[in-house]
Amino acid sequence: MIKFFGKCVENLLKSIRYLLAGETRFSSVLSQAAAISYDSLVISLVIAFVSAAVIAIQVSKQFLMSGAEAYVGGSIAIVMIREIAPGFVALAIGARAGTAISAEIANMQVTSQVDAIKTLKVDPVGYYFTPRILAAAITVPMVVMLAEVIGIFGGMFVSNATIALHPHRYIHSVWLWLNAKDIYISLLKAFIFGILISLVCATQGYETKGGAKDVGESTTKAAVLSTVYMLVADFLINLIFYL
Do the Cβ atoms of 225 and 203 come closer than 8 Å? Predict the structure, then answer.
């Protein structure tokens, strides 16, 4: 794990140098943005809506029995923005796009396409990693913002359907409880998660040796490692900003 983390840091520094050198093509970043976030948009928004709906079902009646139904909206908004939206969206993108990144680069590695790039005096880490890292860092926060909006309004509809909570009281509670700091931290989480997904999965794919069987094993490892790294990062961010 320590050795792999070191390789991730090394690859990130190489990608930053490649980006600052101005060698990254905008078309590559755009295509990777579509593959990473746009293609994962529907499943991310569905997960956000269902998560908010489940939370609303769980807390609405409990709040109603204690006479605190006016706080349902604020509770759901805080949970969605601080944790559920950035965490679940990142996990969905990692499971879908992260594994695809790992499999793609691993396949290039075992079929000697990476070696072919080296013969052209092109840095394979910068060429393969930089567009994916940049695309994920930019677009994952966008998906998270949409997921937060869908989640909050999904909770409103479910609360109205279960305990007949008026939308005005729900939204008023959201405005009272929600702070700009929570949104900034949520976007920071999404930014870091996006970098981790692309970096960890690309590094795992780049380190693959062997054949088709090793590509499959590398893809599985990429999914596990990206999840672990995101959970650790989530814990550290919450420790820094909410302790």
Answer: no
Task: Please tell me the distance from the alpha carbon of residue 44 to that of residue 88, in angstroms, as a whole number.
Answer: 8
pLDDT tens sequence across 160-176? 888 888 889 899 989 98
Q: Which domain holds residue 138?
A: 2-242
Residue 93 vs residues 52, 123, 141, 219: alpha-carbon distances, Å: 18, 26, 12, 14
User: pLDDT tens digit string along 37-50?
Assistant: 888 899 999 999 99
Query: Can you give the length of the chain in residues?
Result: 243
Say how many domains are in the chain: 1
Cα dist from 107 to 170, 181, 213, 219, whole Å = 50, 42, 10, 10
pTM over 0.85: yes
Burial of 117 (0-12, 13-18, 19+ CB in 10 A): middle
Q: Are the C-beta atoms of residues 11 and 130 closer than 8 Å to each other?
A: no
